[in-house]
Amino acid sequence: MKALLVLMGVAAVGALVAVLLLLRAPADGPADGGAGAERVATDSTAPAPVPPAAGKSVLLDVEGAVIEEFSGDCAGSGYPYLCRYVRERLLAEDPRLLTRDGLTIRTTIDQRLQRAAQRAIDAHVHRDDMPVATQVMIVPGEGAIRAMATSRGAGDGAALQQGTTVMPYTLAAAFAAGLRYDDGFPASDTYQAPDHTAFRNCAGQSVGEPSHIVFNREKGGDRFVTLRSGTRGAVNTFYMRLTEKTGLCETVRTAESLGLRRGDGTPLRELETFTLGVNEADPVSVANSYASLAARGRFCEPTVITEIRDGSAAPRLFPPRCRQVLDPAVADAVTGVLSEALTESALGGVGREAAGMPGATDGFTAAWYAGYTPALASAVSLGDPRGGFRYPLTDVTIGGRRYPQVDGASVPGSIWKETMTEVVRGTPETGFARPDTGRFGGCRDACPN
């Protein structure tokens, strides 16, 4: 009998130890169950989530798991970019929400994607580097923001000149006007507007600047450039001529319809060099405009909050708000060109069909990469928050490596590729709709010779 009691006591102690170990284990293990995924959470600038204190507001992810406590001033947030974006949305919805405690705010954030984005950023940009990298990921056809990551805790998705990631909007306007893949123009390494009337804004005002000279980043001499080759090479002078032919206002309207917005909330500046990315945009806007292309011309308002509960009334719901803004066939044609451009670059091969465009700016004031698979769009920006004109991305150390100059295909492109390669792993395969070659193949009225 005594032996039996001893055995029962040992069993009870063992069970108690097992329960304690389970309680200490994280509620959400690594996405892939291995050491690599655990390192994502450890190396991230964001701490592991902790249960919220009673009466405190809390942010939940798309699955309902706790991200972190939420305070209106975002002081001490482990996710400052996300926190501030949520704060802005609450202010727009009802400023009184920021004064209430006990809110449960369900977001669209996917913590697996958030960790992947953070890990890719941390691998290329150190937290004490002056340039700040930011990445946003959005679901096409929904507008749901899945990740908002930065290289520095104080990062908040600052608006930067968008550079050549604007060119796909001009390309879409050209396809909508009836141009085809192999239509083009003779191009040289410089461009000057023939007169002031060559470019008109949407108010009908002439904004051409004949005295302004546009240069290509890489010299190619005089040659015939098509929509396909001009996009692949991001040829400045070709895209100036394409805007001149298609119409500045038409290009601006297309960009706006797809979701492009200035970071300061003012209207897009309708300058002759619009297609070269002179407007400052934030990563949410750029990622969302590319998501509209991925969704075959369907624009959705970017959304980070799906539901707010305060325990005393029915929840506030935030359903997707979407509308068709571009002919699906035109969007497919743009995707076909961007897919070719990505495949033929060093950034191709993310494990899914993908399309993308690097963003280089005049004077290297900023660098971007934006692209998408059928299921996810992402934009990565890189720039010095002190000002890109005073502190350009030239002769700069980033991530422990010295760069004579940084363009979109280097640091931002590497972050984009590494993130997208990781997040598509293990997900269902999807493909793009094939372009209508009968409508967009060959050339029509701007052919060689």
User: Quaternary arrangement of the chains shown?
Assistant: single chain
Helix percent reads 25-40%
Largest sheet: 5 strands, mixed
Strand content: 15-25%
Quickly give the structural class.
Answer: alpha+beta
Question: How much is the average pLDDT?
Answer: 88
Task: Tell me, briefly, the overall form.
Answer: globular
Can you describe what's shown?
This protein has 449 residues and is α+β, with helices and mostly antiparallel strands. The protein has 12 helices and 20 strands. The strands form 7 sheets. The chain has a 5-stranded mixed β-sheet, with helices on one face. A 5-stranded antiparallel β-sheet has the order 5-4-18-17-16, sandwiched between helices. Strands 6-11 form a two-stranded antiparallel sheet. Helix 5 (167-176) packs across helix 8 (248-258) and helix 5 crosses helix 10. The chain is globular. The termini are far apart.
Search tags:
disordered N terminus, alpha+beta, 449 residues, 5-stranded antiparallel sheet
Summarize, please.
The protein has 449 residues and is α+β, with helices and mostly antiparallel strands.
SSE diagram, text form:
Elements lengths: L1 H23 L10 H9 L13 E4 L5 E5 L9 H14 L10 E4 L3 H14 L7 E7 L6 E6 L9 E2 L5 H10 L7 E4 L2 E2 L22 E2 L7 E4 H6 L3 H11 L1 H11 L21 E2 L1 H12 L3 E3 L4 E5 L6 E2 L4 E3 L3 H16 L11 E6 L6 E6 L4 E7 L10 E5 L2 E5 L5 H14 L12 H4 L9
Parallel strand pairs: 1-3
Antiparallel strand pairs: 1-2, 3-13, 4-5, 4-18, 6-11, 7-10, 8-9, 12-15, 13-14, 16-17, 17-18, 19-20
Helix pairs in contact: 2-4, 4-11, 5-7, 5-8, 5-10, 8-9
